[in-house]
C-alpha cells in the first residue's frame, strides 16, 4: 500500500508564504496524478491544486495566481507553494495521489493525514 506524508504546515500572518511538501512511499504500479485538497471546519473538502504526470496543472479559482503546485510523479513527490496567504486559506491540507496498482487500474485516491495551515489576520 502507498502512504503519503505531508510536511510544512504552520501559522503565518496574512500576506505571508508557506510551502507544503508530500512524499509517497510503498508499492504501486504508478501514481499518475498528485495534488492537494483542503478542508476547513464545517466545510466540505475541496480540491486546491493538482498536477499530472504529463505536467497538466489545475487550480481552485480562489488560489490562482497565489499558489503553485509542482510534482514529480516518478519520484512521487508533490509540493504546494502558497504565497499571499489569506485568512480564508486556513484549513487542514491533505496531499493525495491517484494510485494505480496495475496498468489497467483507473486508480484510487489515497490521502495523507493532513497538515494544518492557519493564517492570521
Overview of the molecule:
The chain has 121 residues and is mainly beta. It is built from no helices and eleven strands. Strands 2, 4, 5, 6, 9, 10 and 11 form a seven-stranded mixed β-sheet that branches. Strands 1-3-8-7 form a four-stranded antiparallel β-sheet, with no helix packed on it. Strand 4 and strand 5 form a beta hairpin. The model has no long low-confidence stretch (mean pLDDT 94).
Set down the secondary structure blueprint:
Elements: E1 3-7, E2 10-13, E3 18-25, E4 30-39, E5 46-52, E6 57-59, E7 67-72, E8 77-82, E9 91-100, E10 108-111, E11 115-120
Parallel strand pairs: 2-11
Antiparallel strand pairs: 1-3, 3-8, 4-5, 4-9, 5-6, 7-8, 9-10, 9-11
Low-pLDDT stretches are none
* Major sheet size, sense and barrel closure: 7 strands, mixed
What is the succession of H and E elements? EEEEEEEEEEE
**Form type:** elongated
Quick structural gist:
The chain has no helices and 11 strands. The strands form 2 sheets. Strands 2, 4, 5, 6, 9, 10 and 11 form a 7-stranded mixed beta sheet that branches. A 4-stranded antiparallel beta sheet has the order 1-3-8-7, with no helix packed on it. Strand 4 and strand 5 form a beta hairpin.
Amino acid at each position: 500500500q502507498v502512504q503519503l506524508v505531508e510536511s510544512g504546515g504552520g501559522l503565518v500572518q496574512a500576506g505571508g508564504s508557506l510551502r507544503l511538501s508530500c512524499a509517497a512511499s510503498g508499492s504501486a504500479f504508478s501514481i499518475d496524478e498528485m495534488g492537494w485538497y483542503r478542508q476547513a471546519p464545517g466545510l466540505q473538502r475541496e480540491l486546491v491544486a493538482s498536477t499530472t504526470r504529463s505536467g497538466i496543472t489545475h487550480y481552485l479559482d480562489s488560489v490562482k495566481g497565489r499558489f503553485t503546485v509542482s510534482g514529480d510523479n516518478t519520484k512521487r513527490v508533490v509540493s504546494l507553494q502558497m504565497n499571499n496567504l489569506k485568512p480564508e486559506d486556513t484549513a487542514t491540507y491533505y496531499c493525495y495521489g491517484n494510485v494505480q496498482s496495475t496498468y489497467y487500474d483507473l486508480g484510487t485516491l489515497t490521502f495523507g493525514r493532513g497538515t494544518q495551515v492557519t493564517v492570521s489576520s
